[in-house]
Specification:
The chain is of the alpha+beta class. The chain contains three helices and six strands. It has a single domain, classed as 2-Layer Sandwich (Bacillus phage protein).
Amino acid sequence: MPEQMQPGPQLDAAVAAALGWTRVYVEDENRIWGCPPGLDVNGERRVPAYSTHIVVAWQVVERLSQKGWNWSLSRDCGLCGETETKGDMSYRFVLAAPNLPMAGFWAPTAPHAISLAALAALGAG
């Protein structure tokens, strides 16, 4: 189940496969390889760190937006007071596509939430 996946290589590989990468595999905890859509089989590349880097995760958002998907990202502070700490915050990312159920997930970071929601919404969860 996607909501149980932690950020890192396994989640990155699952998102890449859901986005159409072929022959995705984890070599070790720092190297994930695959063939992006549109490249031939010899065009292996490193899988982006979708679940840990916001710039890379945002590429997923942009790609799904181009397909007509709607999205929202919100941040919640567990301690509503004058100060916030990183450990008190969580992020919720929701994806919705025409004629498909909405997929939304809470996670400690935005890239993690985006990856979980994308994985579920793309039917790979």
